[in-house]
Predict the structure.
Amino acid sequence: MIAEKTTLTLRLTGLLILITLGFGASGFAQSGEKPEKAAAREEISLPENAEMRQRLHAHVEHLGGTIGERNLWRFADLEAAAAYIENQLAAAGCTPAAQTYEVHGKQVRNIIAEIKGRDQPDEIVVIGAHYDSVRGSPGANDNASGVAALLEMARLFCDRPQSRTLRLAAFVNEEPPFFKTEKMGSRVYAEAVREKGEQITAMVSLETIGYYSDEESSQRFPFPPLRFFYPTRGNFLAFVGNLGSRALLNQALEAFRGAETFPAEGLVAPGWLIGVDWSDHWAFWRAGYPAIMVTDTALFRYPHYHSPSDTPDKVDYPALAQVTQGLTSVIEALCND
């Protein structure tokens, strides 16, 4: 028993050291204020973002409202979501391709749109979002918000080749019971590109990115000591990576902060920390690629997570537009720097 307690103490101490090192290396907590005293998020309504907000709203409304719950148990709705994504990618000027595989006797698919790079086409940046929802939930924030941002990025980048190749990926079967199984869409995809020997230089998973709150103590944490390093108001976008993806996280966070006033925080932590691997980036870690998750932190903030009340009216569309705009700068940095 004493040995077990000693091991646990060392593990937690090691985590704190690693997280603290991550803060220093990644430029986290740069403000001189204590996190709980940080200023409320400044809402900015830029005229040029009005149309983007409308498009994002329309995507979330269609996926999370008109279609609603979409998964293998609501297969017609899963197919409707896939068709909608393919049509929107085509309308943006991309040519969507399907990676199809069988699950419980049904054909499901990942949807990939590739914009070939001008100068370094063999170096590939993947931006992904899962389009399925958990059983019993319409999945407006989780994850129609991420898909909406992905579709907006298609509109912005399909006719604008970057130096590196950009792939926009809508993944199926991220939610339980398929998460981390061989039937998880992003795992199927990551294993396929690894088998081909493709050079994925960066992967960014857009996971539940539409809910923000300026209320005190609205932000919770998977590891309580994190509250001493991060804001306790859930008004920021989180960039999350493992130790092997630190350089990627630094680059993405710097690009976002350089382009947007929207609050952003980063966390580099061991993959076993609760919540750090809860999205499609996990599949790319498993395949040996650098990958990060961009998120509003989901269940650590969002009261409607994985519930019937995860509906389109819960999404903060002005914030989602700011986040999406900032993420376009992240894509430009990853594809060109």
Remarks:
- Residues 69 and 138 are 4 Å apart (CA to CA).
- The helical segments are 2-26, 50-67, 75-91, 140-157, 185-196, 246-259, 281-286, 317-336.
- Residues 2-26 form the longest helix (25 residues).
